[in-house]
Amino acid sequence: MRVLMMLILTALLASCEQGADSPRGFSLPAGDVAKGEEVFLTYQCLACHSLKGFEEQELELDIAKRVRLGGDVTRIKTYAELVTAVINPSHKIATSLPAEQLTDSSGQSLMRNYNEVMTVAELTDLVAFLQPQYQLKPFNRTNYPTYFP
Ligand code: HEC
């Protein structure tokens, strides 16, 4: 019974992936990391964010608390997630701080919108720069003792 449920769930999840809105087939050209760093600084991401190694470039804070980018994560941030975080920030709100500190009263992200000003080349470079800033941290499993009857 449990196996059957699993199969049905897997099928359901798989079918979601196939819809017209699915990220399947999403791919952008490779970006340039050094140029991405320039984009990161030019667009003043450090007015709201912190990033290891960029403490000195931090700008005057634009929101209540800095949102950390990069660092240890238990699940890798995919390319698609990072692109989405920049061009459609309200799609999924960061979880590093309580949501009230990251959104306005209507639940929209407080992140600045760059869609009218950032070129696609800038976006791909930016993401190429951001992605390696995230380090996958092994998930610490709870080791339950094994009992032998
Ligand atoms: C005015 C403030 C502001 C500016 C400027 C800003 N952001 Fe954000 N950003 C936020 C807030 C608030 C969040 C958390 C809410 C959300 O997930 O959208 C966020 C979230 C993110 C996330 C997702 C973080 C996570 O842990 O899921 C990424 C990636 C990101 N920003 C990148 C950038 C980049 C790159 C720039 C510069 C091009 C930038 N931001 C500029 C406010 C800002």
UniProtKB/TrEMBL annotation:
InterPro entries: Cyt_c-like_dom, Cyt_c-like_dom_sf
Residues in the signal sequence: none
Keyword terms: Heme, Iron, Metal-binding
GO MF term list: electron transfer activity; heme binding; metal ion binding
Domain Cytochrome c residues, every copy: 31-134
Keyword Iron included in the entry's annotation: yes
One Pfam family matching this protein: Cytochrom_C
UniProt superkingdom: Bacteria
Protein name per UniProt: C-type cytochrome
Species annotation: Bowmanella dokdonensis
